[in-house]
Amino acid sequence: MAESTDTIFEQFPGGVFPAACSSRVLLDHVMSKWGVLVLVSLTDGPQRWSDLRRRAQGISEKMLAQTLKTLEADGLVHREQQPVMPPRVDYSLTPLGEDLAEVLVPLLRWVGRNADAIIGPATT
Amino acid sequence: MAESTDTIFEQFPGGVFPAACSSRVLLDHVMSKWGVLVLVSLTDGPQRWSDLRRRAQGISEKMLAQTLKTLEADGLVHREQQPVMPPRVDYSLTPLGEDLAEVLVPLLRWVGRNADAIIGPATT
DNA sequence: CAGAATCCATGAGGATACTG
DNA sequence: CAGTATCCTCATGGATTCTG
Fold this sequence. Notes:
Helix content of chain A is 56%, strand content 11%.
């Protein structure tokens, strides 16, 4: 298993990404507290604003709006508004977003599998 | 490839992790700005404090200390101090940390591959 | 070298209220 | 329903100084 985990520095000889490069920016978007949850939530299929609020428990409207805008600007999330009253908007992963999800989900699974053992069943 | 990306909710029927559960806590540790960089940096082998500072460009001493402590408390990073003068301390991944790295590195690779196209070659 | 401790600024992020 | 706007708090995180 070593050949897939110890070669990442070949791509980034300058360190773990030079500071202030595009990788760092994208990393912050993708790895942000809410970005991860929104992206993974959307792997379940297109969802509406209120769905996402329910899925990503604890997210505020401000953060949801901000997160969705960032991910949309990055081309990871697609926003589809229907001009009806009351308004209806669906969010979904773009092909690029789905591609990202394929490497993101294994990480989330790992966290889910190990969280209780590492952190403890309840934070209290 | 669908069967591996659309079933994550089976494990977490309550949403994308209920708020304030152990998964959220661990997720924040692992996905934190500097946590990722330190963990991935250590996939390259054991490293000293000053190595890590150089690898994770832009990290402050405070953040490096804080990050390492969290990751060590989580059992992801091993700290080995040699009682010599001047002090020498080596950090490395624990088996658990290596396990995590195997799902983390593909994500980092993805970010490295797509960052320029998504964000733009220079943030300026 | 490998940190600990302190101070301080910024902005991430929450609560609330309002709108189309 | 799907947001926007505003205010405000507190924690992230940088800079600096000190120590074993």
